[in-house]
Amino acid sequence: MKTMDYSFKYTTKAMDIWKLSMYGTYGSMVGFINIIFTIAMILLAAKYWMQVGIILKLVLLLGVGLFTVIQPGLVYLKAKKQVEKLPGQMEISFNSQGVHVTSDKEASHLQWKSIKGITQKPGMVIIISSSRHGFILTDDVLGTQKEAFLKYVQEKIQ
Predict the structure, then answer these.
(1) What's the alpha-carbon Rg for the chain, to the nearest Å?
(2) Is residue 1 part of a domain?
(3) Same domain, residue pair 22 and 68
(4) Does one domain contain both 108 and 153?
(5) Strand partners of residue 93
(6) Rounded to an integer, what distance in angstroms lies between the CA atom of residue 57 and that of residue 28?
(7) pTM for this one?
(8) Residue 60: which of 80, 38, 31 has the closest Cα?
(9) Which residue, 13, 39, 82, 110, is the most exposed by fewest CB within 10 angstroms?
(10) Angular region, 40: left φ>0, alpha ψ -120 to 50, beta rest
């Protein structure tokens, strides 16, 4: 029987995918432009609020809320749909042979050479298996093993 070096049980939550999406957006040029747009809309609303009619007030509110409420809400709804397609609880294990993922319905194995990278975001670690797929492990899942785990994975994928 194989001895696993690290093993974690986890369930990917919509909030985890939402956070990852928001980090991706607001850590890029798109996010920077979203912030500039929102600040400009707040300044326009503050300056002209008392001078414009109801239609323009609605447009100003829409502009202020576009990247602060509407976009995050839509991203969360998309994340909920993504989570519905995932198996429930999964177990992910890391050993010298690679990464092993098991759920109630299936199991898979990835060799270390197929792991594209590892990245850290606030509160989570993402193991990247392809340009569109990966595994989100939150700090709650990793617990006190986080730093040792990061070092272990980084050594394996070099």
Answers:
(1) 21
(2) no
(3) yes
(4) yes
(5) 7, 100
(6) 30
(7) 0.85
(8) 38
(9) 39
(10) alpha
- pLDDT tens, N- to C-terminus, the chain (158 residues): 444 589 999 999 999 999 999 999 999 999 999 999 999 999 999 999 999 999 999 999 999 999 999 999 999 999 999 999 988 899 999 999 999 999 888 899 999 999 999 999 999 999 999 888 899 999 999 999 999 999 999 999 88
Q: Quote the tokens at residue 34.
A: 């979203």
Name the residue range of residue 103's domain: 6-12+86-157
- Taking every pair of C-alpha atoms in the chain, what is the biggest distance, in angstroms? 75
> How many domains, the chain?
2
Residue 50 carries which side chain, given as an amino acid letter?
Answer: M
- What is the b/e burial string over 108-142, where b = at least 16 CB atoms within 10 angstroms of the residue's CB? eebebeebeebeebeebbbbebeeeebbbbbeebb
